[in-house]
Amino acid sequence: MKALTFEGPGRRVWHEVPDPVIADPEDAVVRVDAVTICGTDLHILKGDVPEVTPGRVLGHEAVGTITTVGTGVNGFTAGDRVLISCVAGCGRCRYCRENQDGQCLGGGGWTLGHLIDGTQAEQVRVPFADRALHRLPDAVTDEQALLLADILPTAYEVGVRNGRVRPGATVAIVGAGPIGLAAIMTARLMTPSRIVVIDPASGRREAAERLGADLAVPDAAAAFESMKTMTDGLGFDSVIEAVGIPETFELCADLVRPGGTVANVGVHGASAALHLERLWIRNVTITTGLVDTSSTPTLLRLLADGRLATEGLVTHRFGLDEIQDAYDVFERPQDTGALKVALFHQ
């Protein structure tokens, strides 16, 4: 089969690799029907994730059709149309029993495109299939479902839920890339009073307002001005970091009110300053996290029932064999206007 592999920092190759096979009774092999690219894949290609070794098939988000299941898979059969979650656990260890699959001690967690071959391929082996896969209703398209593989549950669990977004809360989201935009959409489920988004790209600010932000501003100065008018200068109740660089994390810490919460979602490849000399006295909570995908069934129901509108997040579409072109578009959003890309296996 064809797949895209990481061959060291800055190098990705689309070429023939061996077909996946069942390696454990709880595995399934899935034909990839649709796949997408994540900002985390770009971090891997920059060398920010040293656990990813040369030769690894990239990708952790896909929709597909099961071709084979192991003897230990009970909930799925060949022919089922499924969503593949970016994270899945063994279901037996301490963390999985607490629905913290991202911290699985039994060989799960974030494995696809990280510790084992991933989804940017014609086929993929999915461990812990009963926990990793979600059967898709006919009302949900492949393109819609792709957004539930990672960005929507990540934005909701690590950003909105960890960030303690509540009815009537004031929310600031730093970064209007795919995760930041997904944070707007899922934050709105909690009916906050105001959502402010900070991003230097005008196209992404327009997308933020289209998807439900009350205000989108270009820089820190404008963010502090909005803080004065919307929060009486106190700061925002919940601040979500959706970029992953030191400057944006530090901005979040400056925007949060005493007693508020900073939820870091971005993948950081460098150290960021934590100014405890200022924060210790302000009762500020700072959270981090890897998505557990415990919210995926709920988000899937909302999507199927038309309660969660994802239109507008996918801006570019390609055939699977055009994946190099898709990467070129996705990694230059300032030039291409790309938010999320979708690739389809014909």
From TrEMBL:
GO molecular function: oxidoreductase activity; zinc ion binding
Cofactor(s) essential for the protein: Zn(2+)
PROSITE patterns listed in its UniProt record: ADH_ZINC
Enzyme class: oxidoreductase
SUPFAM superfamilies found in the cross-reference section: GroES-like (SSF50129), NAD(P)-binding Rossmann-fold domains (SSF51735)
Alphabetical list of Pfam families matching this protein: ADH_N (PF08240), ADH_zinc_N (PF00107)
Keyword terms of this UniProt record: Metal-binding, Oxidoreductase, Zinc
Domain Enoyl reductase (ER): 10-343
Origin: domain of life: Bacteria
EC number: 1.1.1.-
Annotated family: Belongs to the zinc-containing alcohol dehydrogenase family.
Protein name: Alcohol dehydrogenase
UniProt organism field: Nocardioides soli
